[in-house]
């Protein structure tokens, strides 16, 4: 995947985006509509546990410093582009209250994309420049198959530099959430190794 939804003879619109079936994830970049299948269990597993690790201490302020709004799969309208990252966070000191709306037009302070074979190139090649153009300062790329976390920070020239890289079962303090130690092993557990069949198949 990662290709335009169909051969287009005109720029795609919000109406085209809203017409995409529920079983697909849809994004709109530079007037081109992209659709992807819903992610498989390694992606969902990593995104779910990562969200739990961050929302409790940072979003809810329980056992941690608080100070963030953290959303799962938000629909972002960044200029003419519509993107759906796996997670996004806004510092409460900058955005005390989130708007009540189906889409968010305020650029986040942090984003996380959990990579899958169908989305990795799209996330790196197409979406990273969109996030940089929107001045999102922190970006995480998590690969549940390679078991890696890459932490990028926007530099003065407006592009991302890798600040940290972690792998496997490390216990890490990753910016901008370095106040809490995160156990990467929890993000990968509970999913059969690649090539193993599910029970009963």
Automatic annotation (TrEMBL):
Domain Putative restriction endonuclease per the UniProt entry, residue ranges: 14-182
Membrane-spanning segments: none
Source superkingdom: Bacteria
CDD domains named among the record's database cross-references: DUF820-like
InterPro entries listed in its UniProt record: Nuclease_put_TT1808, Restrct_endonuc-II-like, Uma2
Protein name: Putative restriction endonuclease domain-containing protein
Biological source species: Chondromyces apiculatus DSM 436
